[in-house]
Amino acid sequence: MNIRKISLAAILIVLISMLCAVVYTGMSGSQYNPKTMININKAIAAILAYIAIIVIGPVPGELTVETKLKLSALAVFSPVVFGILLWPAVSPESPYELVSLSSGSLGFAGFIIFTAAAFLCGGLTAIVPGEFGLHASRAAVPLGISIAAVRSGFVTDATARLSDVSQISQTYNIFAIESFLWAVIAAAGFAGSFAARKLTNQDTGINDLKPLVKGWKQSVMAVAAITAVSMIVISILGTSPGIRDRELSAIMLQPGNGQAAFAVLAAFTLCGWAAMRYFKINYIPACIAAVILPAAIRLFAFKQEDILNLTQRYPLSFLTNPSLALTPVMIISFGMIGAVCGYWLAVLQKRNAALAGEEAAVEMANLAARTAVGVADGKP
What stretches pass through the bilayer (predicted)? Predict the structure, then answer.
């Protein structure tokens, strides 16, 4: 192990984290703005927490320190590129507006810039070798665009400026289409990773698709099940304080972006883990489910009659279902991150169980051998 290389890599990660703070401050306006400084502290804390998880995570015997540092650098690089440096490409005019096609912030130029950057970012993940690097490369772009998701305004702030229910309905129709644009951006990261690993003679992960295509009926059922379960979990974890209503059952305030992100992340982590743990299905169906979830929310959670009653009797900061507070970029980014994390939780759980079984078998064999030696020597 080269201590000098590791020390230089660690210093580089710290410097990049400091650069994040400087660039973010410059783009946010006055560096003495208390809200800006709080956001900077949160960003740095999130980056350092992610690095700590990688460096002292639950797989000490499977990753070298050098590989962990490369993963840490990747965890810093992607959020900096998409959430800070390229933020002006999708930044709305007002901090209260959405990062969305509906607000006009996601235009053709921004889409092309993000897609090209996703391809390059996916390609750079080839620096991390092995299967951990392969799967980390698929979470790299979602990790980056997740910063744009949490910097977006609230859905209720956008819908409050609309005059009638038909315009609100149109917003969710746009969400259903927009999710495919963010999916293309995420897929560009997959393509960049594939190309880079192909050029460097590493595993491209193309074999992950073969079982899904061969057993396409099971894959379709998995996508449908994950979509349904994720909506239920999000509706539970995304619930914020509200009031009871005789006609609408219950209404609640718009959850914050942090709570919404947690709800999506937890829902897809659970689904990714269960799919691998019990059905031996990788995270690709869960990623597909994240793409179609906005359409499912429009079909099953958005009820025009309830929205009409809500707008007539309550302020538009209230919602009838927590899933209505989610933007497509929020679902795609945190959904795909959760799917990959859940998959790896199941894989590591299985490996640890197998390792524990092997250790128990060796211990039993040693005990049997000692017993046999004792009997041969005439000892009890």
Answer: 37-59, 71-90, 106-128, 140-160, 180-199, 220-238, 258-276, 283-302, 322-346
